[in-house]
Fold these 3 entries.
Entry 1:
Amino acid sequence: MIDPFGRPITYLRVSVTDRCDLRCVYCMAEDMTFLPKAEILSLEELDRLCGAFIRLGTGKIRITGGEPLVRRDVMRLFDSLGARLGNGLRELTVTTNGTQLSRHADALAKAGVRRINVSLDTLVPEKFAAMTRWGKIEKTLDGIFAAKAAGLAIKINAVAMKGVNEDEFDALLAWCGEHGFDLCLIETMPMGDIDGDRTDQYLPLSMVRARLRKTWTLDDTDYATGGPARYYNVAETGRRIGFITPMTHNFCESCNRVRLTCTGTLYMCLGQDDSADFRRVLRAGASDDELDAAILAAIARKPKGHDFIIDRSHNRPAVARHMSVTGG
Ligand code: SAM
Ligand code: SF4
């Protein structure tokens, strides 16, 4: 699959649910309305779609959400996708808030998952509770250490928020180094209505990186995971730190991914509204050939890049859907 700008599309992110057991302030409003079940693809439908993408050249699949591990029986999907590893699929990963990892870490490893991303924005329990609106940090920490014990490589994702966790990046980097985790910092993106003002929260990571350099030696590396982060080796810890900077740096040039929502809507770009409806295609009884043709037609519409701008005058997000819909 090559898009109109010559980029090979090899990475599919799949949001398996829009639901979540947390309500991170930058991601969701407190009183979110979730989708009715009939609109959500079954695990079999998701597996069939993923199978078609793999047939067409997708080598990496990341399962995300919402919180993917709160979907009932989601391990069935990991098992069926894991069985495709080595058969077109090269890597199966997951992004999770970690609350259910204690239960699922061993099964994920058994299904063939080798690396996971866990979101953890702070190490301070009270701050964690405030940022997630009601989360208990112990649950996520227990999950992280269960995943480590299961042999999974762990990358911690933290969204950088001005005045909230900006004083903690040194501590997070040290903690990750101590436990053998990579760290990835993410700029807040203007996606979906939340309670509050986003422009107040936005913290450019170029500034964070400059501050970190006062304490840490960040060496350039060409390490890449197939995602949008730019990585550095941290000399003092032997681990890596990545920066995802959609707002200050255009990360679209090397974009290799598309995103499938739990309703079967394919977004060719995180920051644009154009989409393709695969639930309709599947439920109309499409053959494999018809499914493949519909996927290729969607890839042919992949736009050149996003245009994230916070609409300051109206305090409106650049993209109306929440990150939990498209999958982070
Ligand atoms: N629930 C899982 C989790 O939190 O890891 C997976 C889904 S979550 C939407 C995926 C990632 O998107 C998380 O690391 C989260 O911090 C990030 N995220 C959510 N809303 C965001 C926003 N508005 N800007 C930047 N990152 C965001
Ligand atoms: Fe849930 Fe993840 Fe969004 Fe937080 S970032 S509310 S854990 S989906």
Entry 2:
Amino acid sequence: MATVTHFFSHSTPIPVIGQGTWYMGENATRRRQEVNALQRGIDLGLTLIDTAEMYADGGAEEVVGEAIRGRRDEVYLVSKVYPWNAVGFRAHEACEASLKRLGTDYLDLYLLHWRATVPFEETIAAMESLIAQGKIGRWGVSNLDTEDMQSLWKLEGGKACATNQVLYHLGSRGIEYDLLPWCAQHDLPVMAYCPLAQAGRLREALLHHPVVKAIAQDKGISVAQVLLAWVIRNPGVLAIPKAATIAHVEENAAALEVRLTAQEMALLDEAFPPPHEKMPLDVV
Ligand code: NDP
């Protein structure tokens, strides 16, 4: 496992753990803390920041804008467009609005948030036009299962897609059956969202699972670090945990150095078996 990657053909290598921003920008009283957390993450090398026009209705992009002010060149900035905005003039308006909130004049990567009714051809055309205008460096997709990826690949310009951002964590391994192998075969990096299983029952089950806890204890690290090290064990996968607290950001950055042994991975496989058949793509 390498801690940095040359994904996206970016000029500088990108660490395989980045920073998510969902639920940031929703509450003014938490804003300073969120900005500080993101800045600490950049200081520690978590330079890929993932956001979306959807998060807090643009509020998360504003938090990111504040965090990267004066240091735009240090980050690899990713945002996402609503599917109904991923076409023609609407894509330009949506992108402009994101850029304004982010306080920058370009995104490194712009993702179709999920597939809806707009034909891929029209989204590809909109993305190509944004690239031609220098507003985005590359484009990618999110929440697409293998069949959708296959359709995209058949279209003119479809292979320019830089990534597929999908849900992936130890408790949700469905993509290992066919999507992850497909992406590997096509040299397409996968960005794993919800690598810590976000909130809810599943997260509690993972955080308190005796096998995960025992591995963390043995290595003198946190359970979250085990979960992140597990997600990035695969050379084609990058994780984007969201952390709004400095302590969490520091833990997540340190997870870049964690290596799970073959025996630890086997124990995790036993507790959370890989899929033996096709499963529908998990989404939030
Ligand atoms: P995560 O799995 O990243 O979990 C986030 C939660 O984990 C927060 O409550 C955070 O707490 C906590 N946390 C972070 N670090 C630690 C740590 N070291 N120890 C314990 N708890 C920790 O869930 P997300 O849903 O946020 O997913 C990550 C990112 O992926 C999103 O923020 C977003 O950018 C992207 N995403 C994309 C989607 C898509 O459709 N393309 C869908 C969902 C997410 P705290 O904030 O208090 O530090």
Entry 3:
Amino acid sequence: MQIDIVTIIPAVFDRVFDESVLGTAVKSGLITVNVHNLREYGEGKHRTLDDTPFGGGPGMLFKPAPLISCLTDLRNSGAPAPVIGLTPRGHVFNQAMAKELAAFDRLILVCGRYEGFDERIEDEFDLELSIGDYVLTGGEIPAMAIVDSVARMIPGTVGSSDSVICDSFYDGLLDHPQYTRPADYEGYQVPDVLLEGNHSLIEQYRTFNSILATAVLRPDMLAETELSAGDKRLFASQLKTLNN
Ligand code: ADE
């Protein structure tokens, strides 16, 4: 997958795609990330990109011409790609969207700044995404978050595809609790079932605790998740055992 990022501060992306899992994905050619400096499209001697809003109001807006000509150049070079504007007014990004975006050969991400975009730029976007209901100083951190989560959905990026399937949110449930050595840490013990090697019981423990964690911590998520008949039965019977 090729990802093109349009930003006025390309330097913030300097190391993000060089290290760890993303770095390996880039080195192995699974993803290519191109960071484009919008300033190169700025107008006049000062390479201006922004101006005050008509009708007054605080802050500055991205002017249409520089961004639209940058997007025209990007569209004219390389594979077709959805253009995604990063703004707090976009759809709130989630794991299902990460999975959908991972199916594209190319994505173009546009990082907002200032008070936002002139409305005529918004028409250039195929999709607007937000990473949550809070306002950041720009779309660069959202772009990093989205590239990271989309990249991990591309087969081969994360070492074991099982670890993606077991992610919190992957199947609409939070992850179950996990433990590593020692089995007893200052009296705080790992549940026996995880030490005994009975894989079917371990699976049941994990399913039950995934559903329980989601019910307690994210009831909104559980309300949207269709549990299988078997999982519902398992949850009800384990809950009964717990209450007795
Ligand atoms: N730009 C500023 N805040 C943002 C957010 N929450 N998501 C995406 N882009 C943003």
